[in-house]
Amino acid sequence: MGVRAEIKGQAFGRLIALRPSRVAKNRKVVWECRCACGATSYVTATDLRMGNTKSCGCLRVDVTTARLTSHGQAAGKQTRTYRAWAEMRKRCLSKTSTLYYAYGAKGVTICKEWSSFEKFYFDMGACPPAYELDRINNKKGYSKSNCRWATDVTQGRNRACVKLTIEKARAIRADTSRPRFIAKEYGITVSTVWSVKVGKTWKENAV
Description:
Layout lengths: L1 H4 L5 E2 L2 E9 L5 E7 L4 E5 H6 L7 H13 L9 H14 L23 H8 L7 E4 L11 E4 L1 H6 L8 H9 L4 H8 L3 H8 L10
Antiparallel strand pairs: 1-2, 2-3, 3-4, 5-6
């Protein structure tokens, strides 16, 4: 136990090594550690000594938060990135959202990590001008592996084409959501949304 006990009680960044927990498949000893934030973490002795792991993950969040603050994102409810995150959560989680029927009601989920704007920003970075948050596979929810910043052209290619009906045209005219969201839901272009709304196409008296 001599070799295993040599780091007991030592601090490595925010972590304090408490006791050896198990031996991993690579024969490295995994230590149970207590983080300064109070959380428990399991790290190999090698990663502790080399400084590869310095916290349970809270250090990364703190560093990200500081970076967000310096870029005006942390409290920046006027930024494109924050709005994309807030709108994503609203249409998936809020039954009062006009788009809830197309997202939350249909089971579109958000990964638990993205309950934090800081983690969302860490994963996605800042939203470029003229880009929107887009799911790569529309059958899956919102997560780092299934999302990207995309232009209207890219999002248009990702839409499942849907043939309009007079019922859908009426629904589009009544929908107060942003045109790009309506377009994505119905698999049409933003220009088509406007054409329907102003009565250029799918006129009631023409059906």
